[in-house]
Design a protein that fits this description.
2 domains; 7-stranded mixed beta sheet; Arc Repressor Mutant, subunit A; globular
Length: 376
């Protein structure tokens, strides 16, 4: 059992007349988290509902205030787990928060709610959205800090940081990851696209898994898969909304030779990425360690900044003559660049055009000798 940093962040948002929505992939611990929140309020009349159940979906689909209240009863705190399964959940939440603001609703979702429901009903001003990721390095380290992470680092790169994976043996970790990939990874995606697209989605994800750290061309992916560019873009959008992958855009502002209209795609968990490719070999035997390290560092940095409530724009940078920076954060008008090298012996050549064009910018190398200062 890991203490989740988000647990403490939820409390200040409760009983303020808004819905608290916790987004995140399946199996990252949303259910465990919300049940702990319920247990933290023994003085309240609480209710937990699993919206994967058809009976719950049907009872919440009525979209009429008094009938919803009759189903929920006189409750102070209600959890709707995997709420994206309820038809037009946006409208249901709007009715509840507008009619019964004293009833605190916590809803979890393993996909953005408009993915399966296409409701278009705005919840602006009625929601506190929060994000739960797989376990972060900060959560894994706890009070022990860097010393707990260091001996496990290579295993984390191979098997990722899903809560159910971290403490397993290599054999059991591989088995658990395959179950995650085969049973849960596509569940929300295929609920939207239909089961007939299962092979196409799996093939697309494998191609993306092979291209982490590189720029991705939708046109090229479409050519390989036999579909058009727009279809590729729509599939990737759905995979993003299901928290399987995320996109970084190219940074382009002042230089004519900067590449701006392109993207890199990363996985929210490197263990999932490796499982898609059946690639769990030890780090010393791999030829993809550079790309794997880059994905790992980018996603762990995003988790870390989320925990610390640090908000920044995120990009990568490249010019047409192949000068590049793996990852850039823009905060308060200042650009901070980072190059990821697994080996401390690998050198980094800082593009002088970047530093000259963007005053006060910086570029730093992140490798396995100094990653803790960047990720913890």
């Amino acid at each position: 059992m890991f203490d989740r940093i988000l647990e403490k962040r939820i409390e200040p948002y409760l009983f303020r007349g808004r819905v608290v929505i916790i987004y995140g992939p399946r199996r990252v611990g949303k259910t465990t988290l919300v049940k702990k929140v319920l247990a933290n309020h023994p003085e309240k009349r609480t209710l937990y509902l699993n919206c994967d159940l058809q009976s719950v979906q049907e009872s919440l689909a009525v979209q009429e205030a008094t009938m919803l209240k009759s189903f929920l009863g006189e409750r102070d705190l209600v959890v709707l787990d995997e709420a994206q399964n309820v038809p037009e959940i946006g409208k249901v939440l709007k009715i509840l928060v507008d009619t019964y603001p004293e009833m605190q609703i916590i809803a979890t979702g393993s996909s953005s709610f408009d993915l399966a429901n296409r409701t278009g009903e705005p919840l602006t001003g009625r929601v506190y959205p929060l994000r739960l990721y797989p376990i972060s390095l900060r959560e894994l380290a706890g009070e022990d800090g860097f010393n707990l992470i260091e001996p496990r680092l290579e295993n984390l790169l191979r098997f990722g940081l899903y809560p159910s994976i971290i403490d397993l043996s290599e054999k059991n970790a591989q088995f658990e990851l395959q179950e995650l990939v085969s049973s849960y990874l596509y569940q929300d995606v295929l609920a939207y696209l239909g089961s007939k697209q299962s092979k196409m989605v799996k093939d697309l994800l494998r191609l993306l898994a092979l291209q982490i750290g590189n720029e991705v061309s939708f046109q090229e992916l479409g050519g390989i898969l036999g579909i058009d560019r727009r279809t590729v873009a729509s599939y990737i959008d759905i995979l993003e909304k299901s928290f399987v992958i995320f996109t970084l855009r190219g940074f382009s502002r002042n230089l004519r030779k900067e590449v701006g209209k392109t993207q890199k795609i990363y996985f929210y968990d490197v263990g999932i990425r490796n499982a898609l490719l059946q690639a769990h070999a030890p780090i010393a035997l791999r030829n993809d360690v550079g790309a794997l390290w880059e994905n790992f560092c980018v996603v762990e940095r995003i988790k870390r900044n989320n925990h610390l409530a640090i908000f920044s724009n995120k990009y990568f940078w490249r010019t047409y003559d192949q000068k590049e920076i793996d990852y850039i954060e823009e905060r308060d008008g200042i650009l901070s660049g980072f190059e990821f090298k697994w080996s401390p012996k690998r050198t980094m050549k800082v593009p002088k055009e970047f530093l000259e064009t963007y005053p006060n910018s910086s570029v730093e190398k992140i490798d396995k000798s100094n990653y803790w200062s960047f990720l913890l």
